[in-house]
Q: What sequence folds into this?
């Protein structure tokens, strides 16, 4: 690798973001930058989603095999200003030369130049993998500078949410990290509750919720799917929604999932053989939770054993992939499953929301 990369650039702003824009070889852009891949355990401050090797190979082959081809510009961010130096062509000019310290940019920790948009395009372009020769074709690039990491995350979210479809759980994770907790509780309580279920050590879903980035083998419940389920659980006025406080609602919902685990323990042990924690099954148990929680709260109860009693009061169901709910999918399938299950519960009756809130919050 050469010591410095020197390119002619235009210095300016894009919607308020300070940038340098120019052209450079794909291999050079790949070598000076790195992806900051989010990992729930090893890199919780990362911004980038996990790489799809197939998508990266497709991008490489697109450039290698095409004469006429086009890509939008690669978007990078200079987190460490010491690795870049801009020299105007003349005093006050917005056109000049950008000098990038290649070795420092490549090796420095933490990442000196991050990939905001274009990681799949750059992954094999540098030639570090012996199966893939360096791509010397030039592309346009945009190098932002002066951004905080939260501002970089915001741009990453905006680009991916508004353009190419990507993992929705990763986007939800970015949303929770960009939104102050107090605000998240008020504006997106379902998302707050879903994430808490994966992070609270008391929760039966602790460590099992996939929030984007690299997916560990034991993480099997997508954050977006669970968030949607919680939204379904709170989609009509009940005593749960009347509590009006995300923390109180969380405690009740957590207790419901504790009861659910005891009711269908096999689904927790072998999730691949059951539909309970995915797709229509996951949404169905959330719809069922709406009924179970409302019945428990109506009697002034919210402990997991109270909810377990309600779940066991109905018929026994086979939640395996070839069981009673085979062939049901989507939201419609989830509603049908919940209607079947809740129709077997015997009837019960009522208590005040104010009294419930005091009991739940211990006040």
A:
């Amino acid at each position: 690798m050469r010591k410095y990369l020197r390119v002619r650039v235009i210095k300016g702003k894009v919607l308020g973001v300070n940038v340098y824009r120019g052209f450079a070889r794909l291999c050079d852009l790949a070598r000076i930058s790195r992806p900051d891949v989010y990992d729930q355990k090893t890199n919780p401050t990362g911004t980038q989603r996990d790489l799809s090797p197939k998508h990266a190979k497709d991008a490489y082959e697109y450039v290698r095999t095409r004469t006429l081809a086009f890509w939008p510009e690669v978007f990078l961010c200079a987190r460490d200003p010491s690795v870049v130096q801009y020299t105007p062509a003349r005093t006050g000019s917005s056109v000049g030369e950008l000098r990038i310290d290649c070795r420092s940019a490549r090796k420095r920790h933490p990442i000196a130049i991050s990939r905001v948009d274009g990681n799949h395009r750059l992954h094999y372009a540098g030639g570090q993998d012996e199966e893939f020769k360096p791509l010397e074709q030039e592309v346009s690039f945009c190098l932002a500078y002066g951004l905080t990491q939260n501002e970089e995350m915001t741009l990453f979210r905006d680009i991916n949410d508004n353009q190419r479809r990507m993992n929705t759980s990763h986007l939800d994770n970015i949303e929770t990290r960009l939104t102050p907790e107090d605000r998240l509780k008020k504006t997106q309580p379902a998302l707050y509750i879903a994430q808490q279920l994966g992070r609270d050590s008391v929760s039966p879903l602790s460590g099992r919720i996939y929030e984007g980035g690299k997916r560990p083998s034991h993480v099997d419940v997508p954050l977006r799917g669970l968030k949607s389920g919680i939204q379904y659980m709170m989609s009509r006025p009940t005593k749960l929604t009347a509590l009006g406080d995300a923390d109180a609602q969380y405690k009740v919902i957590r207790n419901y999932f504790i009861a659910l685990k005891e009711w269908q323990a096999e689904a927790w042990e072998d999730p691949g053989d059951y539909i309970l924690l995915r797709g229509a099954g996951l949404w169905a148990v959330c719809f069922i939770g709406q009924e179970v929680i409302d019945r428990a709260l109506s009697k002034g109860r919210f402990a997991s054993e109270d909810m377990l009693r309600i779940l066991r009061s109905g018929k026994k169901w086979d939640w395996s992939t070839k069981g009673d709910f085979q062939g049901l999918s989507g939201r419609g399938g989830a509603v049908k499953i919940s209607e079947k299950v809740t129709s077997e519960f015997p009837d019960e009756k009522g208590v005040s929301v104010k009294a419930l809130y005091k009991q739940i919050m211990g006040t």
